[in-house]
Amino acid sequence: SELIDKLENTFDYKVDLLVISEDNNVSVKDVQSYFDHFIYSNKLLSSNDFLINLENNEIGVLINNEQAKAEFKRVYTNLQLFLIKVGISNQIKTIETQVIQKVKTVAGSSNTQSRPAENKVFDYGLRNDYEKVNISELKDGLDKVDISGQVFKLDNRKLKSGKYLQILTIKDDTGAFVVKRFEGRRHSEEDILSIKAGNYINVKGNLQYDSFSKSNNVMADAIGKIGKINEIFDNEVEKRIELHAHTNRSEMDGIATVESLLDQAYKFKHEAIAITDHMVIQAYPAAYNHLKRLRAQDPEREFKVLYGAEFNIVEDESHIIRNYSKEQEIDDTFIVFDIETTGLSNRYNEIIEFGAVKVSNSQIVDRLQFFIKPDGEISAAITELTSIDNSHVANAYPIENEINRIKDFFADHAIVAHNATFDYDFINAKLEDLKMDKLTNTVIDTMLLSRLLNPQRRYHNLGSVARFYSIPYDGDVAHRADYDAEITANVLISMLAQLRENKVTKYADIMDSITKEFLVNAFDNQMTVLVKNQDGLKDMYELVTKSHTEEIAITSNGAGESDEVVAKPRLLRSSISAKRENLLIGSSSQNGLLFEMALNKSQSALEAEMQYYDYVEVMPPENYRNLVTRFQFDEKLIIETLENIVYTAKRLNKIVVATGDVHYLEPSDKIIRDIYINANGIGGVRHPLYIRNRNLRVNSSVPDQHFRTTKEMLDAFKFLPYDIIDEIVITNPKKISDSIEDVKPLKDKLFTPSIDNAA
What we know:
Largest sheet: 6 strands, mixed
Helix content: 25-40%
Number of helices: 25
CATH architecture of the largest domain: Alpha-Beta Barrel
Strand content: 15-25%
CATH superfamily of the largest domain: Metal-dependent hydrolases
CATH topology of the largest domain: TIM Barrel
Number of strands: 29
Mean pLDDT: 90
CATH class of the largest domain: Alpha Beta
Radius of gyration: 36 Å
Low-confidence stretches: 98-121
């Protein structure tokens, strides 16, 4: 119109303009603009009485009432000509809205009284001028948007007007967002109340800033229920059984409800699923009741729940002192030593520095320090930690040339180290590799001795212990073998004085003072325990009770030297052993001692530990991703470790099962667990997967631990031979399941209590 006006004013002629378009590819927004102009120019009814849509290149006009319908019919031809003139040649068709009848029942009468028919408001869900985006793409600059997702939080608020405000939080694979709508012409009370948490919905609406919440949200024009997005099915003929799954009863760790886990296993057509929450059994009643509902759907189908738990286990002995006799007096001469290595594993890593001092009568009288040449290169991470690089070891001798030098300096003296288990086991592993006799010296661990002598202290690393005894400690020089050995020697001298004050003269006196409280507060590892039968269920109840009462650990929250503490349920290994007749004990995840042995200890240590378990668990390499991103383990090393576990177990005739350590149902749920991992837990305790280094945390991703299908699990172990993959993924889990009876955690009826001597 502006162009025509300018041409007519310039040339003083009547101008008619015809736009010819090469195609009829036009947007709803463009058509709506021209349509609104036509309505205004022809002084028709309000444009609110009409709604424009595009479908299959046809322009659909939705008409709201009879008067508007008559007006539109009168100008239909002119509208078509107008649109052709502006280059829009698409065919126009009218779409009439449906009529709804509201029926009111008169009280006390069987008759019904009908109100006059009302025109239904426009179905905004039919409009297609909304931009379809993922939730993560909802950013400033967008207007009309089309999103789909699952409702995981719902709030229906009754306003003073009596109308509802509905606030929905929905999620897709990319993120989550808030959607709002008010009850009214577009959204009836019935529509609002029909939406439930867990529903999958499509939302068309306007992205806008909400001044109340001070954030963007979507104000919905239309909300419709849809089928599940990207629904997952298990299409393998032979199915696996998941023997390690957590529900939301695993505190700040599991995401899925027990009902949803059972539903997923049932939908996958698996024969069973094991519930193994951390230290608790609260999911048992809900699991049992939901199992009964599933069985009622198809009484002929085999499906059961395996009841279990994942326990935090501590050992029944502490290695404060090793290799001592009952009457042996505390020595007056010690070799205090430290080693620096290329990593934490004495199986795969190497010693690169040895440092030691000789202490006699509380005086340092001799020293020894030298580098050792490793077979491989020293990584940048180790250089950053220890300041030892490849130039330091370039002219050094390998361990086979230096091991006797270490043994000669030790002689037959008592040897001392801070966290001696690491250093002592490392040297013994190298002796074992070289087919040499292991060390038999008396060994003192100053870290564990500090925990015993100073239980009020929260931290017992070398720096903290040194500062407690007023020994200067330079963190910039630490992690060099000779420096750490000298600091440890001065710590030992202070501890010996403390022992003398307490009139402790024998090693046995130290060990006899170890209490259950000391043991349960030690470093823990995990075991998976499954109930075999009804008697085993009672044993499980007793173990869970014991872990929360007699053997509970009171530990630091890790936030500093404050008074805030947190209680952690734990069990002594002997407590599990005493009840194992009606239980099955599995080796658990990377937090289990068996995996620690396979990754970081010798083959003989692995085989000795493996003998304890009824079945051995291995998990997809993805489950160990944090060891790669956080602790710099090579991915090939993780696979090599898993292979060794499998082949060692087969050689020892142990059954191996592939488990998923499930923490949520589907990959899209991972974002919720990420929130748990990065949040402060109860008592300020951080999740084990939390990374304190911000840069590393931002650039890392935690393992994927969704409920894997059979194919996903088979594919995860492609590094093994096909027959072994089939055995550990399908055959062996079924054997475990078949060996377990159908257990009932609840009675099927109520029982009157029996009280002696009651009337």
